[in-house]
Amino acid sequence: MEALLNIRKFCNLNSSNIKTAVLYKNHFRPASTTNSVSENLIATADEDYEATQLKKEIEFEQKRNKSRLRSHHRNLVHGKIPYSEPVADIHLTHKYNRMLFGKYGKSSNVNPGTLWPTKSELQEMVEYEKIAHPFSFSELVAKQKKVVDEEEMSVKQRQEKILKNLQKLEGWKREIAARVEKKLADLAKAKAKKDALIEEVKRHFGYKIDPKDEKFKEMLVIKEREQKKRLKEERSKAKQERYLADVLKKDSK
Prior knowledge:
Number of helices: 9
Structural class: mainly alpha
Oligomer: single chain
Largest sheet: none
Shape: elongated
Distance between the termini: 168 Å
Number of strands: 0
């Protein structure tokens, strides 16, 4: 009866008083059956205590994580392995393990002996190299040398062309200056003709008239036509005179 009372007291204890319960059990020496039940209860209490502590630690870590990042993202930020255990099919591949070992080294917990490519992978690599890089090293060197020689030749030809153009620069400057001078002379000549024509129209009326007047404009058009006709006749006459001069020159020979 006394042993049963002791067990009942033990069951009413909180999980935080496990050590006290253990001392209480050791103080009383019940029968063998009672000892077995007590040990089971103590083991269960220990498990509950550990689970409670683990839960508290998880909650504490979550409160410490002010960034609100997920665990694998937080590991990446701190330079750690994102996942301690595989969580996807890709995490079981050689490619992923090679990446882990190449980035984290021994801390990745990957056996480097398992990362060597298989025979089929080596064969695929050889076939890829044949297709992607079909030329040998000597062929690549010769090809690159040809490209360099062509570029040097192009630069040389361009430099020679620039030197030739520099030699012609002064002549081009003189030609441009002559064209500009001729253009200005033609403009001045045209302006002088226009002014002379306007003066002729003014003399025709015999009094001062506004150039914007309609009568003035009509007479100006008439005078321009007469001037063009006169110039045309003069050119035709000069052409005939040159022709006659050439004929007389041939006859004299």
